[in-house]
Amino acid sequence: MNRTDRARRVIAAPPTTVYAALLDRASLEAWLPPDGMRGRVEWWEPRPGGGFRMVLTYLDPAGSPGKTSDATDVVEVEFADLLRPERVVQRAVFEAEDPSYAGTMTLTWHLAAAGAGTEVTVTAVDVPPGIDQAVHESGLASSLANLAAHVEAAG
């Protein structure tokens, strides 16, 4: 597993605002699930070595079978590194019986000032082979769009 997927977006909010949305439970539930899904955080420890468990539910599971069940993806995430307001590194493991979803995927959320906003780049390395690359990159882009809408509306 050495595949890397990426998405990038400029968000009209300062890095400190975007960083805060990466580490706020209610914010994460609002913006992280890509289009067609909703998310619920079951536990939350926003500190290095802490993490969270999120249950992502497909709004219409037909044609989009989940990794954990037909309608869900469950992911355990560890916060590997938190560098305010520049970077959040997460290690994600999906609950799945299918070995093509096994392994630890590392996601790095890099924030860089871009004029009055923030360029956010999310890089996922060691993506499990069971995750379709085009679908994953589309999902990452959708999450970034949701993040932009979330922080820009609050601003």
From TrEMBL:
Domain Activator of Hsp90 ATPase homologue 1/2-like C-terminal: where?
A: 12-152
Q: Which Pfam families match?
A: AHSA1
**InterPro entries reported for this sequence:** ASHA1/2-like_C, START-like_dom_sf
Looking up Gene3D superfamilies in the UniProt record yields: 3.30.530.20
Q: Which family does it belong to?
A: Belongs to the AHA1 family.
List the protein's name: ATPase
